[in-house]
Amino acid sequence: METKFINAGSSSEGTEDSDFSAEHTDSSESDVHTVRNTRLTRSSLRLSRNSQDIKQSADHDESPPRTPTGNAPSSESDIDMSSPNVSHDESLAKELSLKESGLAHRPKRRRFHESYNFNMKCPTPGCNSLGHLTGKHERHFSISGCPLYHNLSADECKVKASSRDKHVEERTLSQRQDENRHSARQQAQTERQLRYKEKVTEMRRKRNSAPFKEQKDKYTEHKQTHGSSHEPLLENITSDYDLELFRKAQACATDDLEKLRLQGQVTEGGNMIKTIVFGRYELDTWYHSPYPEEYARLGRLYMCEFCLKYMKSQTILRRHMAKCVWKHPPGDEIYRKGVISVFEVDGKKNKIYCQNLCLLAKLFLDHKTLYYDVEPFLFYVMTEVDNTGCHLVGYFSKEKNSFLNYNVSCILTMPQYMRQGYGKMLIDFSYLLSKVEEKVGSPERPLSDLGLISYRSYWKEVLLRYLNNFQGKEISIKEISQETAVNPVDIVSTLQSLQMLKYWKGKHLILKRQDLIDDWKTKETKRGSNKTIDPTALKWSPPKGT
């Protein structure tokens, strides 16, 4: 069946410039001037005739039509001048005059930029989203373009923008004067360049030196008042010349981000990180993760697959990988068989690594809420080993002291390793730890959609394996729970979903469905023993205390 997708975007009619070009007749400047004056005079006359009628109907009619920005028409050309009181001859004369002057098909005015979303607001406290750091836009929606965050006003940003434009013009003019100089690198500097160099040196010497104590008190007061909602004060940290260079670089970077936003490559709000480069894979993200804004707004993150540090560019990642000494997760290796290794990482001892792991997991989990408070948790990281190091396959976390005996708080399999049996291996490993602890475990609720599917499949296999090996006549839910470490509630819900639990003559009966057991045996034979957990390969004892 063919599926058609309809674009629900706003129509461009009335906002895009018309491609129709009017033909201009040969007429003198005086004739055009006369026609325009006549047009303006007639418009004023019609306005004066209808002003009395407009006043009388103001109490009964609705408010005048407004532009998409919410403002009333700002110029005479936005108001419809047509009126039934105007004679037919006068209308014909107007149309004829417009055709003669070439103004009959004037393109419609663009009143605002379509990409502005006026429901968005700047995240800086107390900011009204007006102005822009570049001084070239009327609104902003992010901290990077907020004048208030940078301790400036909208008017100051406009003044600085005009100053920068003037400097660019002067520099362009000076470069044109030097175009006739060939092989400039091999020749001596011009007098203009020498003068500018001396000027810069003198400006850097004149660093404003305020009293140290007064300057420190000023910075401390600013930090206590605004905290991280405003940029720290940068005055007197360096020379005014270098500070101005930094401000120019800020404005240029913000202008580039604004252009990307208008092109649709960067959006405000929602999941701004679209892809991550992780090892040899480039992964599309599923959900929003609260990375710092300076990283989230880039749209793509570059991550070290060993230490999980996130970076802004491929160059930074390449330099980091050249000096990164990590080849496996921190913590103790508690399981190894073949190419599979599992590491136990304490959130209290390796806080940064665990926080980065949680931020990474949130890109692929919808219900995850833990990001930074990682100290009460233990993280069990499964890796696949080759000659380059231990590559992250997935992980699960559990509380050090869980009153409800939850053996999993959060579980994730990386997208490049999904549908390969690693999810069930992680679940099986969590229940293996519960068996060693001599406890009955259960995952923390609510489970994600993929998590519920994985756990239901795992519980089904555990029950069918147990029933296949069971030789007795009477069986109890409690015995199954003690041997498999699965919570009795999960066992009952799984038996009900398999239609193996019946109520007959006041007793609950478990039906041994041989067809399901045979299907399970066939799948086990095809799967092999490569993606299973071997309890003998575990070298672990339950942690004591916190």
From TrEMBL:
EC number(s) from the headed UniProt entry: 2.3.1.48
UniProt feature, compositional bias: Basic and acidic residues: 21-34, 161-182, 192-203, 213-232
Pfam families: MOZ_SAS, zf-C2HC, zf-MYST
Composition skew (Low complexity), residue ranges: 37-51
PROSITE patterns, alphabetized: MYST_HAT, ZF_CCHHC
Alphabetical list of Gene3D superfamilies matching this protein: 3.40.630.30, 4.10.320.30, N-acetyl transferase-like, Winged helix-like DNA-binding domain superfamily/Winged helix DNA-binding domain
Keyword annotations: Acetylation, Acyltransferase, Centromere, Chromatin regulator, Cytoplasm, DNA damage, DNA repair, DNA replication, Isopeptide bond, Metal-binding, Nucleus, Phosphoprotein, Transcription, Transcription regulation, Transferase, Ubl conjugation, Zinc, Zinc-finger
Segments forming domain MYST-type HAT: 268-542
Protein name: Histone acetyltransferase
